[in-house]
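**User:**
If convenient, please work through this fold.
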Amino acid sequence: MVLPSNFESLIEEANNLNLYKKLITQLNKDFVFSNIDLELDVETLPTSLKLVLQETVYYLIENKFSEYLNLLYQVDISELKIRTLDGDDIFKLSEDVTFLILQREWQKVWYKAKYS
């Protein structure tokens, strides 16, 4: 599996494979397991999805860092990937982490669809 390199290609691939709703369901599942109060509607538009996730990640970094770390652990984001990101600009960091979360969640959904 080749992971999409940007948000638009990830959403396009999810839509082409009819897995966008499953992606949102997987996000909701991992947010619940991380004790983060965020539930996305399966009809959420991709632009809204990106915005809400990024705002949530930004808030967690700024105000609830332990919950942020818990989310990264639950989603299974590689510590090495996080360490390569620039932490000087929190807005850019939240954008990059949001994409890493979406990439990893997409990977989970894709594998389940392909091998189930």
In short: Residues 43 and 54 are 18 Å apart (CA to CA). The mean pLDDT is 96.
